[in-house]
Design a protein that fits this description.
The protein is an alpha+beta fold. 29% of the residues lie in helices and 27% in strands. It contains 9 helices and 15 strands. It has a 5-stranded antiparallel β-sheet, with no helix packed on it. Strands 4-6-11-8 form a 4-stranded antiparallel β-sheet. It has a 3-stranded antiparallel β-sheet with strand order 2-1-3, with no helix packed on it. Strand 1 and strand 2 form a beta hairpin. Helix 4 packs antiparallel against helix 5, helix 4 packs parallel to helix 6 and helix 6 packs parallel to helix 8. The longest helix has 16 residues. It is flat, with a radius of gyration of 26 Å. The termini are far apart. The mean pLDDT is 86.
C-alpha cells in the first residue's frame, strides 16, 4: 500500500484531473505517508509554495508536522483559511462535504498545534453531530476522528454523574469521567423517562432506538428523490400475489428504481430481504442468465442467505430494473419485508416498497 501511495505521489502532476480535489488527493497521499513514517518530503516541498485551498494547506501542514517539520507546519497552518472546500455534500467519488472538510481541518489543527480557532470549529461540528440531521459515514467518521484528537489534548475532566428513571420508578445512577455514559432501557418501555444531573454543569441526553419496522409501517418516501416500485411475477412473467403462494412456485421479484432528484446519484444501494420461506436463486452459481440480471450494469451485487443487495449509479430522470429469481420452498407463514433503496452517503434520497405477510401453502 505505501509503495503504491509513494509511486502515485511521485508521479502526480498538477491538473491531472483538472480540479481542486485532485490536489486534495495528493496531499492526502502525502499525509498518509508521513503518518506511516515514509514522508515524501520532495513532493511535499513542491506544494509548499503553491496556491492551495485552505483544506489542502491544512492537510499539507499536518503532513509536515507528522514528518517532524514543525516550523514548516506552523508556517503553512498560520496562512491557511478555515474554510471548507465543499459547498455541499458530494455524492460522487470525492465524497466531500462542508462537515467532513471541517473535521479534516480540526484534526490538522491538533497535529500542527495551531489550535486558536479549534474551540469554535469543535463546537460547530459538535452541534452538527448532536442534531437530528442525517450524516454520512464520511462526515461522522472524520468528525469523530478529529474529536478524539482534540479532546485527547484537553485536561482530564472531573467525574460527572446523572440519575434516570422510567415511569416514576426507582432512580438509577450513572457516573463517568470520560464525558459520556450509557444505559439500556427495558424492551418496549412505557412511561416518561426522567434524567437529572447530580453536578452543576448541564448534560445532554440522547435516546436511540434500533429495530425493524413492522411490515406496512415503513417511513414515508420523500418526493423529488428516489422512487421504487416492486412487482412479483411468475417465471412466465404473469403478475402474482406474494401474500399467498403454492410451495414450489418459481418467482421473479421485479423492482424498478427511478431517480427524480435532478442529479446523477452514485453509490445507490437496493437492499431486498426476502421471506424465510423463499429460496434465493443465484444466477452466478446456477450459470443461468435467463430472466434475471447478474453484475451487468451494476457496481456490485451481493447474494446472501436471506437478501440480495445491488449497488449502482442512476442518472437523473432514468430508471433501473432489477430482477431476482426466487422459489417458494418452505410451507408456513412469514413476514414479507420491505425493499429499501437509498444513496449511501445522503439518506434524503431513499425510498421503500411496502412490506406485509406471506403464506406458502402445500401443493394441492
Amino acid at each position: 500500500l505505501f509503495a503504491h501511495l509513494g509511486a502515485a505521489a511521485r508521479g502526480w502532476a498538477p491538473g491531472v484531473y483538472a480540479g481542486a480535489w485532485d490536489t486534495v488527493t495528493q496531499v492526502d497521499r502525502l499525509d498518509v505517508l508521513s503518518l506511516a513514517g515514509k514522508a515524501e518530503l520532495a513532493e511535499m516541498n513542491r506544494l509548499r509554495n503553491a496556491p492551495l485551498t485552505g483544506l489542502s494547506r491544512w492537510i499539507l501542514a499536518a503532513a509536515y508536522a507528522s514528518a517532524g517539520q514543525a516550523d514548516v507546519a506552523g508556517q503553512l497552518a498560520r496562512t491557511a483559511a478555515v474554510v471548507p472546500l465543499s459547498s455541499k455534500r458530494m455524492l460522487g467519488e470525492w465524497l466531500g462535504s462542508p462537515i467532513r472538510d471541517q473535521g479534516r481541518i480540526l484534526e490538522a489543527m491538533v497535529r500542527t498545534g495551531q489550535t486558536a480557532q479549534a474551540p469554535v470549529l469543535f463546537q460547530n461540528l459538535r452541534k452538527e453531530l448532536g442534531s437530528s440531521s442525517w450524516l454520512s459515514t464520511q462526515e461522522t467518521g472524520v468528525s469523530l476522528w478529529a474529536f478524539s484528537g482534540w479532546l485527547g489534548k484537553l485536561p482530564k475532566g472531573v467525574e460527572s454523574a446523572v440519575e434516570w428513571r422510567l415511569a416514576g420508578g426507582a432512580w438509577n445512577r450513572l457516573s463517568t469521567s470520560k464525558g459520556r455514559a450509557g444505559a439500556s432501557l427495558p424492551d418496549a418501555p412505557v412511561g416518561v423517562l426522567e434524567v437529572r444531573s447530580l453536578n452543576a454543569k448541564p448534560v445532554e441526553v440522547l435516546v436511540t432506538r434500533r429495530g425493524i419496522d413492522v411490515p406496512g409501517m415503513e417511513p414515508a418516501t420523500r418526493p423529488g428523490g428516489l422512487e421504487i416500485h416492486r412487482t412479483w411475477r411468475t417465471a412466465e412473467g404473469a403478475v402474482v400475489d406474494p401474500t399467498r403462494l403454492v410451495q414450489g412456485t418459481e418467482l421473479v421479484c421485479e423492482v424498478v428504481v427511478g431517480n427524480r432528484s435532478g442529479q446523477r446519484l452514485s453509490n445507490v444501494a437496493l437492499s431486498q430481504l426476502f421471506p424465510g420461506g423463499m429460496e434465493i436463486r443465484n444466477d452466478r452459481l446456477e450459470a443461468a442468465a435467463s430472466g434475471a440480471q447478474t453484475t451487468d450494469g451494476f457496481d456490485r451485487i451481493e447474494f446472501r442467505d436471506d437478501r440480495v443487495i445491488h449497488y449502482m449509479s442512476i442518472a437523473s430522470g432514468t430508471t433501473r430494473t432489477i430482477r431476482v429469481k426466487l422459489r417458494a420452498a418452505w410451507v408456513g407463514r412469514f413476514v414479507l419485508p420491505t425493499a429499501a433503496v437509498e444513496a449511501l452517503y445522503d439518506s434524503q434520497y431513499s425510498a421503500w416498497a411496502r412490506g406485509g405477510n406471506c403464506e406458502i401453502v402445500p401443493k394441492p
